[in-house]
């Protein structure tokens, strides 16, 4: 869905209370009863129906018919408004601009802060493609599918925020993360374009080596990107340096499928350079030897190349709990469906 923040400034405090109540009720209900919304929001039931009607007209909630009780679902539009309001209250965002990108499971927009500085916001939208990809596994998300997709989107944003923050702090070429709320990530605006838009390059060998070095540096720090390709690599318009984006699927080098993810990242770059630039190198990183190099640099294995293992710090998928395991199942399906 397309983000439309036109009505955001006109929503009343009561309407946001109702919207928040629907979100809270979605934790235990596929369709949130109107009576429960009234109880959570602590507003009179008479006024609730009018407020819900207004929110439904704006597409922020949807009324569900043919159920045993009168109820509503939170839409991604409503979820967007709740996230944008949280960011606005923290003065990290003041206005929403044009859409500049569409991912498999996300939308990207230019926004600005109160001083007018441009930033980028990424809205995770798991379920847009994932739903079709795993529709045969009807028991996967249980009975609360719509709420679960938003919950997964929130987990994806939390995970991406954690990775971006630690990677940026340790000097990796990633955007500077600024803030996050629910399923949204706010980051710096970089004047760059996707690698996939390049038809030629003055020195493809140099760029190839730089990208392989990034893959190796990730692995030396205990991490594998998991979707390292021309869609998730930006080229700075001035310096020509690569910037890596998109981290929800990042995994630990101790992950059970770590070698598959690592080889896939390497193969995606090799395939793209051969197809686009006619460049084919006889040298590329190997998983086992790369890990051994990292261990030698770390010494005993717990002190990383950057001082410690970053996978341990950010609790990468190989170390995550039940919630991260659930998220990983969705992201793994998406990753395996993607062809370099």
Explain the overall architecture.
It is a single chain. The chain is an alpha+beta fold and 340 residues long. It folds into three domains: 8-77, Orthogonal Bundle (Arc Repressor Mutant, subunit A), CATH 1.10.10.10; 91-188, Phosphorylase Kinase, domain 1 (2-Layer Sandwich); 192-337, Orthogonal Bundle (Transferase(Phosphotransferase), domain 1). Helix content is 43%, strand content 16%. It has helices spanning 13-25, 34-41, 45-57, 76-89, 130-133, 145-169, 204-220, 258-277, 287-298, 310-313, 322-337; strands at 32-33, 61-64, 71-74, 95-102, 106-112, 118-124, 177-181, 184-188, 192-194, 223-224, 233-236, 242-244, 251-252. The strands form four sheets. The chain has a five-stranded antiparallel β-sheet with strand order 4-5-6-8-7. Strands 1-3-2 form a three-stranded antiparallel β-sheet. A three-stranded antiparallel β-sheet has the order 9-11-12, covered by helices on one side. Strand 2 (61-64) and strand 3 (71-74) form a beta hairpin. Helix 1 (13-25) packs across helix 3. The two termini are 26 Å apart. 40% of the residues are buried.
Features:
alpha+beta; Arc Repressor Mutant, subunit A; Phosphorylase Kinase, domain 1; Transferase(Phosphotransferase), domain 1; 5-stranded antiparallel beta sheet; 3-stranded antiparallel beta sheet; 11 helices; 13 strands; 16% strand; EC 2.7.11.1; ATP-binding; Rio2
């Amino acid at each position: 869905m397309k983000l439309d923040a036109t009505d955001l400034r006109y929503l009343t405090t009561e309407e946001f209370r109702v919207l928040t109540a629907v979100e809270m009720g979605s934790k235990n209900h596929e369709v949130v009863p109107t009576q429960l919304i009234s109880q959570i929001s602590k507003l009179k039931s008479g006024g609730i129906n009018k407020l819900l009607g207004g929110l439904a007209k704006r597409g922020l909630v949807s009324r569900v018919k043919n159920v045993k009780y009168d109820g509503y679902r939170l839409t991604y539009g409503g979820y967007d408004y709740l996230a944008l309001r949280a960011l606005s209250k923290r003065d990290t965002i003041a206005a929403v601009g044009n859409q500049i990108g569409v991912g498999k499971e996300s939308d990207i927009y230019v926004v600005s802060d109160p001083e007018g500085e441009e930033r980028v916001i990424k809205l995770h939208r798991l379920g847009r493609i994932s739903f079709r990809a795993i529709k045969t596994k009807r028991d996967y998300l249980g009975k609360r599918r719509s709420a679960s997709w938003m919950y997964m989107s929130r987990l994806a944003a939390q995970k991406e925020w954690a990775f971006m923050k630690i990677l940026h702090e340790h000097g990796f070429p990633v955007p500077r993360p600024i803030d996050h709320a629910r399923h949204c990530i706010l980051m710096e605006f970089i004047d760059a374009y996707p690698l996939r838009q390049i038809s030629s390059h003055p020195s493809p060998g140099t760029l190839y080596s730089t990208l392989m070095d990034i893959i190796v540096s990730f692995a030396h720090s205990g991490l594998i990107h998991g979707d390292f390709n021309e869609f998730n690599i930006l080229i700075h318009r001035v310096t020509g340096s690569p910037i890596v984006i998109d981290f929800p699927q990042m995994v630990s080098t101790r992950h059970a499928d770590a070698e598959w993810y690592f080889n896939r990242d390497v193969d995606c770059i090799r395939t793209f350079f051969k197809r686009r630039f006619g460049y084919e190198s006889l040298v590329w990183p190997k998983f086992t030897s790369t890990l051994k190099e990292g261990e030698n640099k770390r010494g005993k294995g717990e002190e990383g190349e950057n001082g410690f293992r970053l996978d341990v710090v950010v609790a990468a998928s190989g170390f995550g709990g039940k919630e991260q395991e659930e998220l990983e199942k969705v992201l793994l399906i998406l990753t395996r469906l993607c062809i370099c």
